Amino acid sequence: MTRRLSELLRVPPGAVDLRAIDPRGTPGLPKAAGKDPKTWARAQLPILGAELFAWQEKLFAQAKSGASRQRLLLLLQAMDCGGKDGTIKKVVGEFNPQGVHIVAFGKPTEEELAHDFLWRIERGLPGAGMIGVFNRSHYEDVLVVRVHNLVPPRTWRARYAKINRFERKLVADGCAVVKVMLHISPAEQKQRLLDRLDDPTKYWKYDSGDIDERALWPAYQEAYADALGRCDSDDAPWYVVPADRKWYRDWAVANLLLEKLRELSPAYPPADFDPDVERGRLVTQPEVNSG
Ligand code: AMP
Ligand code: MG
User: What number of CA atoms fall less than 13 Å from residue 40's CA on the CB side?
Assistant: First the structure.
């Protein structure tokens, strides 16, 4: 790969035009992928996963020793059927579950509505050493909230600056942030909804309201474009991942996480004991019987 995927998928500077990004595209896919890129990408996933797992263990270990508060947050946003759940299953599933903290943000509860929009977000942040995953996020408060006029325009407009301040503080506090918009086409969404209707084992995923939301596609895309353009920063960048092809989506998100973990380069903490002394204690200890 000549250019890093984090450069290729980074939201372009200036006004964002999502129509210029092909949801079926496969930016950065290497020549090695050959004529059957799907098979290639699917085979890459466990290889990428092994490295993700190895970095995660170091991240977890260095926090356990109290040496570091480093953590990583993957924030996922997408239209309905965009593949957030699939990405979590396939990519996040490569990590050790003990070190993963996944939070899904749905329609706010009464209690959540009684607080500032960032209140529930702060409560969902990953602790030191953890990989946090947000399935939807504070961005809903400038997306669905804007499209449905759930608050006056001056309220959601003021939120971009609040989000930027919040994320800047978060990163300064040791929480790396990778924000991913899974970019699907309306045609792919329609197909995925039809698939759900054709398969009784997928009925549970079906939401009749998705058809109404789908009618608001242009308004959502405009809201997404604004959010991505106004809240992209070097500290907390936005990536647009073409997501009509699930195999590309998973390969790309795994690579974005890998790039960030390599950059963070967590390391195993040194022993806070003398291994020779401890070994000596253990081997000279009188035999311990089971009972
Ligand atoms: P799902 O992710 O399919 O379980 O659906 C969650 C629903 O909650 C989506 O329709 C979101 O648009 C909605 N949602 C998430 N955050 C908010 C919010 N802050 N205000 C209103 N609706 C929200
Ligand atoms: Mg839904």
Answer: 12
How large is the average pLDDT for residues 53-66?
A: 95
DSSP strands (E only) in 96-235: 100-104, 131-135, 175-183
Rounded distance between C-alpha atoms, residue 197 and residue 203, angstroms: 6
The residue type of 46 is: P
Q: How far is the CA of 105 from the centre of ligand 1 (A)?
A: 6
- Banded pLDDT at 1 (limits 50, 70, 90): very low
Cα 134 to Cα 101: distance, rounded to the nearest angstrom: 9
Buried b or exposed e, range 43-80, using 16+ CB within 10 angstroms: ebbeebbeebeebbbbbbbbbeeebbebbbbbbbbbbb
Cβ proximity of 224 and 18 under 8 Å: yes
Which residues in the chain belong to E strands, given as ranges? 71-78, 100-104, 131-135, 175-183, 238-242
Give CA–CA dist 71/222, Å, rounded.
31
**CA dist 19 to 136, 185, 187, 224, Å?**
22, 10, 14, 11
User: pLDDT, tens digit, for every residue of 145-163?
Assistant: 999 999 999 999 999 999 9
Whose C-alpha lies nearest to ligand 1, atom 11?
106
β strands within 52-187, DSSP E: 71-78, 100-104, 131-135, 175-183
**Does residue 2 have a pLDDT over 70?**
no
Question: Coil, strand, or helix at residue 177?
Answer: strand
Give the strands of the sheet with 131-135, arranged side by side.
100-104, 131-135, 71-78, 175-183, 238-242
Q: Whose CA is nearest to atom 3 of ligand 1?
A: 80
Which ligand number lies closest to the CA of residue 104?
Answer: 1
